[in-house]
Amino acid sequence: MRTTGINHVALVARDMQETVTFYTEVLGMPLVKTVALPDGGQHFFFDCGGDTAVAFFWWPETPAAAPGVASVRKFPSDSKTAIGSMNHLAFDVAQGELSACLTRLKAAGVEHIPVIVNHDDSESGVCGELHDGVFVRSVYFTDPNGIMMEFAASTKAFVAEDVRHAPQGATVEV
């Protein structure tokens, strides 16, 4: 068995109209498929490039959001989420587009971290300056459903030496 990539990720929307407006107008992702579900809900798909989609379910009655459990409460100060939850979704962008992403988010009034975050292998995992050890640069923001999102630009390809930590075992009962 060999996968060829991600087809789509499916999330849950608080308000489908607000979600459609955000993803089509703010993020520029075309709405490519809509489905009316037999239980009165909806399932909509947005083209996010590279033959992949981000999809949303919506139902008239849905449990409330659970920040700190099913989604990030506040990045970066409180970004832990529960086992089996989705922490955030990262969209691949070219490095030269990151400043434009920041500008667009600010102009649209979208909650975001107002700087490009450089991820490296330092103790803190981030640094203020771009250097040869930076492997991805990111812009973090929140969508109207409270879901943490990221525009991520890889700065280099991973190599075998990038896998250098042994996995740790579970510390909580599942």
Q: Helical element count?
A: 2
Q: Give the ordered list of helices and strands.
A: EHEEEEHEEEE
Gross morphology is globular
Please give the alpha-carbon distance between the first and last residues. 28 Å
Q: Please tally the β strands and state the result.
A: 9
Strand % is 25-35%
Structure classification? alpha+beta
CATH topology category name of the largest domain: 2,3-Dihydroxybiphenyl 1,2-Dioxygenase, domain 1
- The top level CATH class name of the largest domain: Alpha Beta
Range of helix content: 10-25%
Mean pLDDT: 92
Report strand order across the widest sheet: 5-9-8-6-7
Total of domains:
2
The gyration radius over C-alpha positions equals: 18 Å
Largest sheet report: 5 strands, mixed
Sequence stretches where pLDDT stays below 50 over 5 or more residues:
none
- Name the CATH superfamily assignment of the largest domain: 2,3-Dihydroxybiphenyl 1,2-Dioxygenase, domain 1
Instruction: Please name the CATH architecture of the largest domain.
Output: Roll
Q: What would you say this structure looks like, in words?
A:
- The chain has 174 residues and is α+β, with helices and mostly antiparallel strands.
- It has two domains: 1-62, 2,3-Dihydroxybiphenyl 1,2-Dioxygenase, domain 1; 70-161, 2,3-Dihydroxybiphenyl 1,2-Dioxygenase, domain 1, CATH 3.10.180.10.
- It has two helices and nine strands.
- The strands form two sheets. A five-stranded mixed β-sheet has the order 5-9-8-6-7, covered by helices on one side. A four-stranded mixed β-sheet has the order 1-4-3-2, covered by helices on one side.
- The chain is globular, with a radius of gyration of 18 Å.
- The two termini are 28 Å apart.
- The mean pLDDT is 92.
- Residues 5-154 form the VOC domain.
- It comes from Caulobacter mirabilis.
- This is Glyoxalase.
- InterPro entries: Glyas_Bleomycin-R_OHBP_Dase, Glyas_Fos-R_dOase_dom, GlyoxalaseI/FosfomycinResist, VOC_core.
